[in-house]
Amino acid sequence: MKIIPAKNSTATQTVVENSSTSVSDGMEEYNRLKFTLLVLTIASGVIIGLAVWFWYGWKIALSYAVGALVGAVYLRMLTKSVDRLGGESNRLGFSRLGLFVILIAIAAKSDQLEILPAFFGFMTYKVAVLVILAQDLSNGFHSR
């Protein structure tokens, strides 16, 4: 936020109000983006999980679903970590990596889960990121 000195106080107030409005608008957009990413991750996990169940059976679909669930939790942890970046913390923690390691370890030891479908399920949150990216790119091309 920058306050530009002015000869009268109303001009200064206008600059401060406009700056705070743009910050709150940016936070609203950021919160909408986080929610959209989470919803797209869950929706794509369900849709892909059902397709996997149809083509490959319940064991592979269960592995995929567990991976997709852990991926959604990972995405939620990632967004909370990003939320804390400007305030109390100036670094990204690596505790989320443990979530992935535990998923793969459980899939490796379990008789009910397969490693590769669990990994692909975990990566489902990337589908949501790609959908948002494609929307942003197509909006950018249409506005030109």
**Elements, N to C (H/E):** HHHHH
Q: Which stretches are poorly predicted, pLDDT < 50 over at least 5 residues?
A: 1-6, 9-17
| Strand count | 0
Radius of gyration, Cα only, in angstroms? 21 Å
Number of helices: 5
Q: Explain this structure to me?
A:
It contains 5 helices and no strands. Residues 1-6 and 9-17 have low confidence and may be disordered. The protein has helices spanning 9-56, 58-83, 95-109, 115-122, 125-142. α1 (9-56) packs antiparallel against α2, α1 (9-56) packs across α5 (125-142) and α2 runs parallel beside α4 (115-122). It has 144 residues and is mainly α.
What labels would you give this structure?
144 residues, mainly alpha, flat, disordered N terminus
How is the topology of this model organized?
Layout: H1 9-56, H2 58-83, H3 95-109, H4 115-122, H5 125-142
Helix pairs in contact: 1-2, 1-5, 2-3, 2-4, 3-4
